[in-house]
Fold:
Amino acid sequence: MTKGRILVAMFGTDQHELGAVAVAGLLRDNGFEVVYLGRFQTPQTIVQSALDEDVDIIGISCHSWEFLDYVPELMALLAEHRVDAPVVLGGSVITTEDAQAMMVHGVTSVFGSASRSETILETISALATQRRARVGVG
Amino acid sequence: MTLRTTRSGIPFKDFYSAEDWQSQGRGEAPGTFPYTRGRRGNALPMGNWIQRELSGEGDAKRSNQQLLELMAHGQNGLDIIVDSPTGSLIDPDHPLAAKAIGTQGVSVCHRQDFLDLLRNIPLDKISVSASFPPLFFVPGLCLAAQAYGFPRNILRGSNVLNPFYSETNSLGVNLPFDARVRLSCDVIEFCAKEMPRFHALVEDTYFFSESGLNVIEEMALGFVEIRHLVREVLGRGVDIDAFAPRIAIVVNCGTDFFEEIAKIRATRRLFARMMRDEYGAKDPRSLSVIVTSHTSGLSLTSQQLANNIVRGTIQAVSLALAGAHAIEISTFDEPYRTPTPESHLVGLRTQQIIDIETGIARVVDPLGGSYFVEWLTDEIERRIWNMVLEIEARGHPRELDESGWFREFFADKMRRYYQDIENGQRPVVGVNIHKVPPETDLLLREISERKMRPVQERIDAVKDFKGHRDFARSKAALRKVMHSAKFGENLLPATIDAFAADATLGEIAGVIRMAYGGPYDVFGAWQSPI
Structure:
């Protein structure tokens, strides 16, 4: 029984992918199902995949400043398509101020390079459980 | 790792003595086989190495200003990085590019960009190193040289070509393995004939070891790739001594001081033996590989940013002692961005102080003969070679690439790196030891967190450029590129002609992709013009 389905993607031409691969591995090793979209994604491809795969959480790995412009677009598109999966961001370039701004746009959690694995797993686990309870899965 | 092992897990003793030094390095003079101590027997009075900092932001004109300013500050080599759309081989007017144009490097897509980028640069005197996707820098350099009256055969510099590890390590171009290897070999073959002073094969072990590889893994993967490319180029009938003198390696440099020095010395020795014994090289320059370095960005922290200046300094000192031919210091703001003007200057001044004031590089290989360094050099050499053989025994690199073995290797090392920090096995000052509260951690923060907006004017500028060119001529040149790609001709002449005919980087990449049976645009936004 999976603890939850999480989509892992990166925006635009941000190619620093190994962080996303490593986190996807961490999640899989801890009982989550990962829908790995990887690099070169846009809000459109992410929303489409979130709908098709009925994911519980959308996780975006950010290692360029593209997230600053893509996140607002993504949040609007998710609302338009009534996707209720929470969005979490992770990445070394996200400053404290950026994290606050992203939360204002509706992002649920932000992880930085100093975030511990157990914190990431606990947060993701809690969000997945809430979402699955909400839609009546599991 | 414990305190009694190096970063790579090599156990060591309290001290070393004469009996720890195997006989193989004894009596070796610098400038002689197997070149453990470097290619040169003589030290230069000053400016012992090429001092350069990573450059490029916004459009080509703005980046050119940046290069000229750094040269005015005494930088004696150039190191240019492209932005992520250019690195992904898409033009700025492609929909996927819009939010990243010029933010992490220079945006380059057509001939005029190369001319703008290299305007007023003395191409006969300064070496131009570039982190461009394979194939695309040399044509641009040739066209700029032609426009500014420099003959091709005196151009100096290098282009990073790593075909094995680029897709997994931030430099993906969406081309299959065979195509990537072929582009690299085309550049090497072309430069062997036309640009004898240019380092066409630069093995960049820096960028892929930033996934947390130790020095053994870094150099083993580097040698696996060099060896494959050398065999491929030899298979084309090119003489080993026609291209081996211009092979260089850009290594990473982390914070384990002696291990990094021993790594460079061991690499030189391994390379010399391999070139002589396996590939029959005879020219002394084919045997003595040029080693340059880029200090580790991964070792830098977003906490207590000023500490990064100290890390860069220590790393650059180890490189100067190891006799690196060129050094680039990852700047203090690296955890957040490509360098600001402020951090550029600190990086450059650090190198200049080490060079001019400390005098540590006035003698060649000053650590040669140290019992510990010699022992560690032997030990690292042995471990690198064992790992090269182990990886090669796993199968053809194409299979290791396509099966995801390389990718999993890198991801695994990245997980190891962060686990070691999390569980304290790898102490990092400011991260898991000697921390300060974020609200007091303000030194250099404002500079480092300063952002650059994408240069969206480039979109209209490039659309305008495409709208006003002689498109029939560009299309004819693109057909020629596709023909060369399909029929195995060296792609350099056709690519130079295509840029000269105002075809763009994205278009040239697209038709090459088609020649390999792929789509013109992997993102499905554009149709092929031919």
Notes: Chain B touches chain A at residues 83-85, 87-88, 90, 95-97, 99-100, 103-104, 168-172, 211, 302-303, 335-337, 407, 410-411, 414-415, 418-419, 422, 431, 438, 449, 451-452, 454, 522-523 (CB under 8 Å). The CA atoms of residues 181 and 435 of chain B lie 45 Å apart.
